[in-house]
Protein 1
Amino acid sequence: MSVNQDQLKQAVALAALEHIKPHIEQDSIIGIGTGSTANFFIDALATIKNQFDGAVASSEASAERLKSHGIPVYDLNTVNSLEFYIDGADESNHQLQLIKGGGAALTREKIVAAVAKSFVCIADESKLVDVLGTFPLPVEVIPMARSHVAREIVKLGGDPQYREGVVTDNGNVILDVWNLSITSPRDLEAQLNNIVGVVTNGIFALRPADVLLLGTQDGVKTITV
Ligand SMILES: O=C(CO)[C@H](O)[C@H](O)COP(=O)(O)O
């Protein structure tokens, strides 16, 4: 019997809980991502909420879900270190370089991931690709720079599309960039971030995931590089 995508997401969320559990202490604070897979993880984490201190969230939506379970949410500025950051992805290659930002939370996700000692990515098998870029690359942009950034992206060979009606938690807008075949993720990540007006882009290659827990029809696979 085949397992549907939500069941795969739930399975990797439970696997992530098992992955971090042995390292969790009463004063631990855990970095939490955004999206449907991260939501499954938040719900799983709630089952051990008395065994750690609290969480740092990468979005207002995740903060609300954590609080609804009675899990304290901390401002990242008040936290010295995070052992783990747990989050989903829109795509991962075999080097665990990612595209993220389908839920428009990429900037805060990248910040929390940067602080964490270990980034555990949780995803169903549809997210694993050989080359990043089939999923349109989200770029968070300061609103007044939208057209300028779009023109610069066209020069790089991308096809930017304004994600209408979406405002990020930081008050910015999103351009989704189509038709990029991202063969040098680190270079493109840096190049896009160098465009004036870009807050950040959804390539996570300069700081890739450390572990990918991949939900497959044959069970959860643990991938490291
Ligand atoms: O980057 C993200 C949000 O900005 C998510 O991790 C990504 O969109 C995957 O979402 P889902 O777990 O719902 O498939």
Protein 2
Amino acid sequence: MVIKKAGGLSDVVAGKTEIATVGKKGRGLTYRGYAIEDLAQSASFEETAYLLLYGKLPNEVEFEAYKSKMAKLRGLPAGLRVILEQLPAHTHPMDVIRTGVSALGAFEPERDRQEVREVADRLIASAASILLYWRHFHLDGIRIDTETENESIAGHFLQLLHGRKPDDLHEEALDISLTLYAEHEFNASTFAARVTASTMSDIYSAVTTGIGTLRGSLHGGANEAAMELIDAFATPDEAEMGVQQMLVQKRLIMGFGHRVYTVSDPRSDIMKRISQSLSLQANDWQLYHISERIEQVMQRKKKLFPNLDFYSASAYRLMGIPTSLFTPIFVIARMSGWIAHIIEQRDNNRIIRPIAEYTGPEQQPWISIEGRA
Ligand SMILES: CC(=O)SCCNC(=O)CCNC(=O)[C@H](O)C(C)(C)COP(=O)(O)OP(=O)(O)OC[C@H]1O[C@@H](n2cnc3c(N)ncnc32)[C@H](O)[C@@H]1OP(=O)(O)O
Ligand SMILES: O=C([O-])CC(=O)C(=O)O
């Protein structure tokens, strides 16, 4: 029997949701009843976002209308472009996206609760524009046009990043990755966003809460941390030795383990296959072989499996995406899940306010300032 540690609200049911199931049998993930394997295989990220936000899969007419609506929402207000230009060149892109989302909330505030899905679409459609406008301004000294012809958000992101039409396999791989990252029940960032929504705050504040919570390396930041780990080794043998040493030192191996899954993370199996296809296409197996060896060591020594963040790292590198954009990509995808949860929270709201077990001192006599040690 596995004895789980106390704390961290582990195993606490903190509310109800109709949006996703995670790890029902130790593994397995569904969005609104659809298996993640089916969504990854057959749905684009836009279809998945629609499913999450609008509660059902779009029919053909709805889907065409949704895609063309999203493509028209990629431009940025002039004032927001000025703010992005003012941010330092060395800013981490997570700071850029957090600031960009917050600033968009000032230029285009949520005036009416009925508008929530409009704001959701706007945020998801323009997030890549925010990141890549800032990046090109500071890196290349150019003000890019953020409105590309590309239909998909994945293609739009890659086209803005590289300044050319994306490779088909790269676009498909990023699109699937966005679907895998879109939603995950009461993970830390979604729960944080729901707490903010529960106070009747606005959507931009709740999404900014989600971004701040996602960033940490125990959560979304693990994809960047996993890349740094893999980059630290030149060969699979070096990785084997290095990871074993880290385990002896009781260090965390980023991209492994999970609070809810106990058998495996189904998203990782899909991402691993994507990383393999990208390695084959590039005829460059170094990262994949190092990653596989780390996976073997973790299985052998700790019985721990990779989570979605681990093979995302090598896959993103093979698409030519800089490491500092890994967690921001997670943000683009997860905004769909966060906002689905914000809507669900609002539809049946009660402020989220748990209580704490007090462990501080008993009541004490007051000490005036002169008498204090
Ligand atoms: C998309 C996502 O956000 S997925 C999560 C991404 N995060 C990471 O990859 C960071 C690395 N992983 C971790 O830190 C953890 O596994 C978490 C945060 C995902 C889950 O945390 P918890 O549920 O609190 O795991 P918990 O601490 O109970 O782990 C049980 C044991 O396994 C160990 N363990 C868990 N993950 C790892 C890891 N990645 N490397 C080494 N040891 C680990 C813990 O140290 C603990 O050992 P102990 O009992 O001797 O103290
Ligand atoms: O569910 C979690 O705790 C973390 C995770 O995998 C995610 O948010 O995708």
